[in-house]
Amino acid sequence: MTVVAPTLTFERRMLKEYDLLISLDEVGRGALAGPVAVGAAVMDAAGARRGVPEGLRDSKLIAEKRRSSIAERARQWVPTTGVGWASAAEVDAVGIMRALGLAASRAVQAVVDQGVPLERTLVILDGNHDYVSKVHPVPLTVRPVIKGDRDCASVSVASVIAKVARDELMASLHPEHPAYQWDRNKGYASAEHRQAIREVGLSPLHRSSWAIAGVPTLF
């Protein structure tokens, strides 16, 4: 299968109307354990004139061994990046969509805290649903883009930095909870993960509100 590299076509069009873009993408929505994470990547007109970094793709399309180096290249390509998080406990407390909104709002705030203004700034959100506007404490202008992580280079940046950050976090938690093998499955519903849950039960980092036992294997 031929994988088409993301472009800046959409970003360049939007930068005719806005001064800045904050592109967002989430990872961890379907995991059984651990937080959800939303990456944020800022794009300006100067960045949109530069070439897309080699190898940049939606994080799901990048081999795991290459993600860290591509994520670092991506961070250097854009002016500002950030990652927002919502814990498994928050997923249990408010549901997955509101938890994604919290993580997205925190990602936006992470780049705002680095000096990125929200005036004349468009938030590009991968997907077809705006889950951040109702959560963020100040008004945002949001444009959901279906397949944004595949087609829009700035969203691909957000995707890969969030994926690398979350994978590193889950691997770091493995020594405390080795039975689940999070260093390998990153909290997703692998066969080994589900078997460990049947044998030893849930950890405090599992999304206990989910019907975990019957979740199909995702890989």
From TrEMBL:
Coiled coil: none annotated. CDD domains: RNase_HII_bacteria_HII_like (cd07182). It comes from the Bacteria. Residues 19-219 form the RNase H type-2 domain. It is an enzyme of class 3 (hydrolase). Keywords: Cytoplasm, Endonuclease, Hydrolase, Manganese, Metal-binding, Nuclease. Gene3D superfamilies: Ribonuclease H-like superfamily/Ribonuclease H. Manganese or magnesium. Binds 1 divalent metal ion per monomer in the absence of substrate. May bind a second metal ion after substrate binding. A divalent metal cation binds at D25, E26, D126. InterPro entries: RNase_HII (IPR022898), RNase_HII/HIII (IPR001352), RNase_HII/HIII_dom (IPR024567), RNaseH-like_sf (IPR012337), RNaseH_sf (IPR036397). Its main location: cytoplasm. One of its GO terms (molecular function) is metal ion binding. The keyword Repressor does not apply. It is found in: Cytoplasm. GO terms for biological process: DNA replication, removal of RNA primer; mismatch repair. One of its GO terms (cellular component) is cytoplasm. Its cofactor is Mg(2+); Mn(2+). Endonuclease that specifically degrades the RNA of RNA-DNA hybrids. Belongs to the RNase HII family. This is Ribonuclease. It comes from Microbacterium esteraromaticum.
